[in-house]
Amino acid sequence: MKYTDRQISNLLKSIYEGSITVSKLPTDLYKAIGNHLRDGVYKGFGGTLNSFSFDTPDYELLSELRNNTYMFSAAKTYQQVREMSSLAATAGTFKDFKEAAMSTYKRYNEDWLKAEYNTAINQAFNAKKWNDIEATKETFPYLRYSAVMDKNTSDICRPLDGITLPVDSIMWRKYAPLNHFN
Fold first, then answer.
1. Helices marked H in 46-175 — which ranges?
2. Which contacts of 165-172 are long-range, i.e. CB under 8 A and separated by 24 or more positions?
3. Interhelix angle for 57-90 vs 5-17, to 10°?
């Protein structure tokens, strides 16, 4: 994510001083998170909006995915500001607050953001793939669920392995990759 040390310092200072609150969120953080996740969606989908004709299912789907990344970014920004504001309310000094708030910042914007970015890539890839499946379902009317069967296979995926159903089956609305976060 493109968010500098200076921006992080300003963010923490502004939260501590009360000029950034859940009612007045930092737009630069919101945009940095949103842009990062949007780039993951573009990577997974195989292009930007400019890569697809306006009147195609791919353009429409990619536009929705992109918009969702910004809605998610808004919620994520709200939650971390809320959490850090609580820390500011109970911290004695700015130094104490900064230490605790940096832990929160890193959890949201390093640890969790990495998983969210990887998920954005994979979900966008699979969304694009689904558009392709829909476009060719007359020729290829069935899908087979193929789970990776190893020691990490979940109780959700194990019984689905090998199931073959028509593309229009309601089962695919619930069980399609990725079934698990990250």
1. 57-90, 94-106, 112-135, 171-174
2. 166/141, 166/142, 167/133, 167/134, 167/137, 167/140, 167/141, 167/142, 167/143, 168/137, 169/143, 172/143
3. 50
**Residue of 23, 35, 125, 147 lying closest to 15 (CA atoms):** 23
Could you tell me the two tokens for 71? 């809605």
C-alpha closest to that of 86 among 74, 72, 100: 100
What is d(CA 26, CA 70) in angstroms, rounded to the nearest whole number?
Answer: 14
Residue with tokens 């998170």, as numbered in its chain? 33
- 68 pLDDT exceeds 80? yes
User: CA neighbours within 13 Å on the CB side: how many for 69?
Assistant: 26
For residue range 116-173, list pLDDT tens digits in order. 999 999 999 999 999 999 999 999 999 999 988 899 888 888 999 999 999 999 999 8
37 prior amide bond cis, ω within 30: no
Separation of alpha carbons 112 and 84, rounded Å:
16
Q: Using an 8 Å Cβ cutoff, are 69 and 34 in contact?
A: yes
